[in-house]
Amino acid sequence: MAQAKTYKACKRTVLWFFVFAFALHTAFKSGLKAISGFVPQNVLIIIDMTWASLIIVAVTVFPIYVLVAKYEVTQDNVRLRKGFILFSHQLVPLSSVMSVTTVTTPLSVLTGFNFVVLNSPGSKSIMPFVTTRQAKEVSKMIEDAIQRQMTGEDAQ
Question: In angstroms, rounded to a whole number, what is the distance separating the alpha carbons of residues 153 and 147?
């Protein structure tokens, strides 16, 4: 039996999330300033406080989620561990995986916004925020396992 291979989520994803959050925050504040003449001041304060709370939660929760995510691929199964306060532990036997889908974004080499989706009957398991190399490697390992399973069944 082959050794288990462990993968962690790409940490560059956190950097790009911060860049995106900053840009979104700047655009929101500009929009808020643009409508400040038309909306009462107390409504603007409530909107601004709500927005600030959401941004603080997002920039706190997302990095922890990414840093905790851990994936382990063996010859027989895939273990997924992810979450923030409530952790999800999934064990996906490779014998139940029907197909694997690799989702890469245009700038995925820089951002780490890549996903590997394991398609099983009745469920989909997602490995989010892996590097491009990891996504290709995991997909290849799972495709090989599916191929071995298919040829093993054909021989019987």
Answer: 10
